[in-house]
Amino acid sequence: MFIRNCSIFRAVAVVIAIATVFTATVSHAEPVVINSGNVIGSPLPGEMPHHMLQTQHDFAKLVALETNGEVDLKILEGKRQDIPVFGMPGMASEGEKIQATAVPSFFLPRVPELNILEIPYLFRDSDHAAKYPSSEIAALFSAMIEERYQVKVIGHFLVAHHVGITSTDKPIVMPADFSGRHVNDDFESFAPMWTNIKPAARYSIGFADAAAGALHKNEDLDTSIGMLQNLVVQKQYTKFKYATIAPSFYTFFYTFMINRNVWNELSESQQAGINRAAKAAQVAAVDNEQATAIYHGALNRSLGVAIHMQTADERAAWRDEFSDKVRDGILEKSGETEKLSSYIEAIKSL
């Protein structure tokens, strides 16, 4: 099952809370407008919104509710913003075009400690991932981001947990199935993963290039690793006829941050309201990720893709083959083995 037993109740609670925005007592003063840069594109007509875009919109509605309408968080989309996505953390820090943004850990190179989130199966399952945003280790990473980017971190929203390994001619079931294949894995930190199981070639084709057709233009490429919810927008179903869904293969969060000066100018009650909204949105993000994973699993099937759901035994084999190799590579490259090891253990113990 994708969804935990309590997810439906959490989702309903968030929906009820958001619905009450329209009956809340709204301040007559002009609201504080915070423009938030968004790295997720707008959905096409009739397309289900990306779950991270949905989470950000949920968050904006909760901010309006919890601040009594005194703060208007505007999630910018598409042509409403002309901002290079990788520059959004720095631009939020400057506070001119945008005053906030939500970005994944690999958009924050000044905090290389976050690379440990790329370790396969670092998180056991979605319940484990749900504990991270309110944890002490997440607070420690927040402090690092605040110091190195001069922003205020508000929360961490789950974006990636269900990973899809697509292939052209057969399902990828066991680690040995990667041997001799042409694999797109996108993350530099994955290089040590292939010490024993050696692909014929590795590629690093990111989301935007894949969505523009780069996976299809490479005739040799026969295997790709990416977030399940990205496969349809990349039209992988026209080339890759098999997909193995591997929950927890990697787990990522978007960090939501606000310009420090804008944050400091808010009243204490406004700040408290935003913090309450962030806590609720962190819960909603887990449910949004899982709900769209269900949807995209079914959507891929309807488009002719044969879906294989990774079993517990298969997951154990993948973890044994890949996890420690990626971990050791990150630790060796960092030069701070003891410190990063303590961070890894802190996450595992949640």
CATH class of the largest domain: Alpha Beta
Distance between the termini: 22 Å
Q: How many β strands by DSSP? A: 9
Number of helices: 11
The CATH topology of the largest domain is D-Maltodextrin-Binding Protein, domain 2
Structural class: alpha/beta
Strand content: 15-25%
What does this structure look like?
It is a single chain. This protein is an alpha/beta fold and 350 residues long. It has helices at residues 7-19, 51-66, 88-94, 126-131, 136-149, 207-211, 214-217, 260-265, 268-302, 312-334, 337-348, and strands at 32-38, 71-75, 100-104, 151-167, 182-184, 201-203, 223-227, 242-259, 306-309. It folds into two domains: 10-105 and 150-159 and 253-295, D-Maltodextrin-Binding Protein, domain 2, CATH 3.40.190.170; 163-248 and 299-348, Bacterial extracellular solute-binding protein, family 7 (D-Maltodextrin-Binding Protein, domain 2, 3-Layer(aba) Sandwich). Helices cover 40% and strands 19% of the residues. Strands 1, 2, 3, 4, 5, 6, 7, 8 and 9 form a nine-stranded mixed β-sheet that branches. α2 packs antiparallel against α9. The longest helix is centred in the last third of the chain and has 35 residues, at 268-302. It is globular. The two termini are 22 Å apart. The model is unreliable at 1-6 and 20-27 (pLDDT under 50).
Give a quick rundown of the structure:
The protein has 350 residues and is α/β, with parallel strands linked by helices. 40% of the residues lie in helices and 19% in strands.
